[in-house]
Amino acid sequence: MLRYLPFLLVLALWIYAFIDCLNTPEEEVKHLPKVVWVIIVLLFGEVLIGPVAWLVAGKARRSAGAGGANTPWNRGGSRGGWVAPDDNPDFLHGLKKDGPARAADEDGPADPDTAAPDRDEALLKDWEADLRRREEELKRRESADRPEGEGRRSEDES
User: pTM of the prediction?
Assistant: First the structure.
């Protein structure tokens, strides 16, 4: 099995270089036309000259830090790659414009110290009233479901 390994590695490199050559846009091909590179890779693939030549000299390669699309988050390598949201002026401007209004809409005042204590007390009273109402309703259901003799026996036994 090991005797087939060099042949398989050469074949894999040959196929990779051929597909890479075919998928590369014409404007990224260096030194020769794309058709000539395809012929070189195909004709000299068995001796690895064609695929290695394509990988070394045929394609304009990007540096690792400059890859990616030209978006507000990645400025095409002009700033060295990815830009964090807190360094993006458009993102920060959007926060300044929407920040206080959005916070007030979501949960009341933006500053928790200015929250009215009356509001908290009213909310607590509403919760207590709801809890009492539910307890009474539960007691009514239990008394309606229980036969009359059963409830008295348990009280007399204790």
Answer: 0.40
